[in-house]
Amino acid sequence: MGGLNGVQIVARGNLERQSPGAQVLRSEEQLSAVLGEMGQQDLLRSGPLRAVSFDSQVVVAAFLGRRRTGGYGLELADVERSGDFVTLYLREQRPAADAMVTQAITWPAVLLLVDDAPPGVRAFIRD
Q1: C-alpha–C-alpha distance, residues 39 and 15, integer Å
Q2: Handedness of CA 110, 112, 118, 119 (dihedral sign)
Q3: Theoretical Cys-Cys bridge with 25: which of 17, 30, 39, 98, CB 3.0 to 4.6 Å?
Q4: What is the pLDDT of residues 4-56, one digit of tens each?
Q5: Which residues does residue 106 pair with via DSSP β-bridges, in sequence order?
Q6: pTM to 2 decimals?
Q7: Domain residue limits, the chain
């Protein structure tokens, strides 16, 4: 198990969703659809996503929703495992007030690989 308590961020990009949230991906078809939305289909051919075993792993797509500029992102803050649940806590990264950022609308998102995934997987975005 790699990362924080068996969870690691395996991709970053943009996923156009109106509200912050998360989606648990439990099949290659679901993963392929999300990667298509992110314009990162090539991740199915290389890196940790090419060898996902959905029998024991899941992928979580977490997204911030619309942001007015670049410089935003998500980081994995904590992971709690208890019984039939794993709970992921993510934190929004914001650009510094004086940072030079892309002047374009962005939709920050991350994909997280959860090893030894129990039946219940949930994710929360905290400030």
Answers
A1: 9
A2: positive
A3: 30
A4: 999 999 999 999 998 999 999 999 999 999 999 999 999 998 888 999 999 99
A5: 67
A6: 0.93
A7: 7-126
Pick from 59, 84, 54, 43: which is nearest to 8 by CA?
A: 59
Measured CA to CA, the distance from residue 52 to residue 47 in angstroms comes to 10
User: Long-range contacts made by residues 35-38, C-beta under 8 angstroms, separation at least 24?
Assistant: 35/11, 35/111, 38/11, 38/13, 38/14, 38/109
DSSP state string for the chain: --SBTTEEEEEEEE---SS-EEEEE-SHHHHHHHHHHHT-GGGGTSSGGGG--TTT-EEEEEE---BSSS--EEEEEEEEEETTEEEEEEEEE---TT-----S-B-EEEEEEETT--SEEEEEEE-
Label residue 84 by pLDDT band (50, 70, 90): very high
CA distance 120 to 126: 20
92 burial type by CB count under 10 A (0-12 exposed, 13-18 middle, 19+ buried) = middle
The maximal CA–CA distance of the chain, rounded, in angstroms, is: 46
Residue 2 to residues 31, 58, 103, Cα–Cα distance (Å): 20, 14, 35
